[in-house]
Design brief:
Elements (H helix, E strand, L loop, with lengths): L17 H16 L9 H21 L9
Helix pairs in contact: 1-2
């Protein structure tokens, strides 16, 4: 799907910033919607989707258990 989205979970990426998470969410929403930049009438729902995917990603990364690593 989005081959340019990098893996954000440890150990692949030990330090993940909010900007990294938001950038991945933006790439995902762009791919799914088919819009690089939505028209004005779609901007609000596009931004809401990016926010929702950002939060879901943050939750996922905070709660993943990776074998062989120290629990967070």
């Amino acid at each position: 799907m989005c081959r340019s989205i990098k893996t954000l979970r440890p150990p692949a990426t030990p330090e993940v910033s909010d900007d990294d998470i938001r950038a991945a969410a933006l790439q995902y929403v762009r791919k799914v919607s088919g819009f690089r930049a939505p028209a004005a009438h779609n901007r609000e729902v596009f931004d809401e989707a990016v926010d929702a995917v950002t939060e879901a990603t943050r939750h996922l990364l905070a709660n993943l258990t990776v074998r062989g690593s120290t629990p967070r």
